[in-house]
Amino acid sequence: MVSEEDRKTFHRDGGVLLKNVLEEKWIKILAAGLDECFNEPDGMSSELVMNDMQIRVDQYPAARSKGLRDFIYNSIVGDLVAEMINTPVRFYMDQMFVKPAGELMATAWHQDTCYYNVEGNDLIRAWVSPDSVPREASLEIVRGSHKWNVTYRPLVGRDPSISEETYKNNLKKARENGFYERAGDSFAYNDALLDTALPEVPDIGNNRESFDIIGWDYEPGDLILFHGNIIHAACNETTLTYPRRAHAIMFAGPNVRYKKRLGQVIPDPKALDPYKPETGQFLSEFEDVFPIVG
Ligand SMILES: O=C(O)CCC(=O)C(=O)O
Predict the structure, then answer these.
(1) How far is the CA of 213 from the centre of ligand 1 (A)?
(2) How far apart are CA 150 and CA 220, in angstroms?
(3) Pocket of ligand 1 (CB under 6 A)
(4) pLDDT, tens digit, 9 for 90 and up, residues 194-213
């Protein structure tokens, strides 16, 4: 189902939309899994709030949803990712992004690379939704930015040169301005530590015309695949009459290795802890934690 043209587009641009590749059955399973996780937050559920807008982000939702696991292991998504990069792929991690109906909060321009303890060129993200998501609300990417060979710093976390007290005060001030995190018991974006040796993501939002930005109108059944190192956002503030539910799954091909990052944001999967992984180890050394799914 992946054409040579799709492959060319993916490798050149860093992202591609595959139209109508998911059967109705899988859209239903996806919707039910996302609703189940949304309705029962766990310790890894975090709500980012900006005035009247908010976004719920859950880390590893498939770990507690049989339906989402089924989707990852048995839908066609893993196979399409594998076809896209011409090699078997492993399931690395997943996240849920839900924006309630109304004016949607922006997902700021960022690069995922530094959020995780992995590195490698075969990192592919699959983004799916059971909802119609017009371009203004769906993903946009900076075309070709996966080839810039820069790892940018995450948008969250404490600069280690700032004391914890100052950081708390900064968070308090942000809260007074309506911007804060309602975090779960076992994970908070704000608990991260920043690796300030990494450059900041350019101010793309205020300089859109300086960047080659592409995006897609998304319909249920479609699949957006984008490169793990691409700069992306879901930014153009817009209003929807229904929630925008999304599942983003990270897949890893053979050249992906574990890399302990100074400024890691997203914790490793719990199942990896007993292995005490070291920088440089291939994910294939942890077969049962990162199974081949495509
Ligand atoms: O769906 C969104 O708003 C953000 C998704 C995202 O940043 C990602 O999948 O990495």
Answers:
(1) 16
(2) 33
(3) 97, 107, 112, 125, 127, 232, 234, 246, 248
(4) 999 999 999 999 999 999 99
Q: Domain count of the chain?
A: 1
Residue 206 lies in a domain: yes
Decide if 277 is inside a domain. no
CA atoms within 13 A on the CB side of 139: 29
The best mutation among 77, 95, 97 to test binding of ligand 1, ranked by most ligand atoms within 8 Å of the C-beta, falls on: 97
CA distance 163 to 69: 41
Give the CATH number for residue 90. 2.60.120.620
Query: Given ligand 1 and candidates 48, 55, 107, 152, which is best to mutate, with the most ligand atoms within 8 Å of its CB?
Result: 107
226-267 tens-digit pLDDT: 999 999 999 877 999 999 999 999 999 999 999 999 888 999
β partners of residue 56: 47, 98
Which residue range(s) make up the domain with 214?
A: 4-266
Residue 53: inside a domain, yes or no?
yes
Task: Determine, yes or no, domain membership for 291.
Answer: no
